[in-house]
# Entry
Amino acid sequence: QVRLVESGGGLVQTGGSLKLSCVASGHNFGNNAMGWFRQAPGKEREFVAATSWNGRSTSFAESVKGRFTISRDNAEMTVYLQMNSLNPEDTAVYYCAAHRNFWDWANIDSPSVYDHWGQGTQVTVSS
# Structure
């Protein structure tokens, strides 16, 4: 069974940091781009960041550029999202996802190109 399991969420004050992890099991996504998305209450799921299969390319939403970094350890089948300088607007459930194609970087910010999703981890930033 293919699973993506996120962890690392929690409650943090404005200006704080969190590091999210996403561990894959049941399938090696070492050849797939991986992305992080988030969804706040009453809002659409939105793209946060993505990393290519080998980690050499990354992409970030404008709202998190300069504050978030994404990395991956294919040997550990884990993707990370380091979040710094958090603010209340970052409050959401964060999901990791695996791109449906090998070595594909097209439309990396669209949920439609991802076909495996984790269950999400809650991030709450207090003011």
Remarks:
- The mean pLDDT is 96.
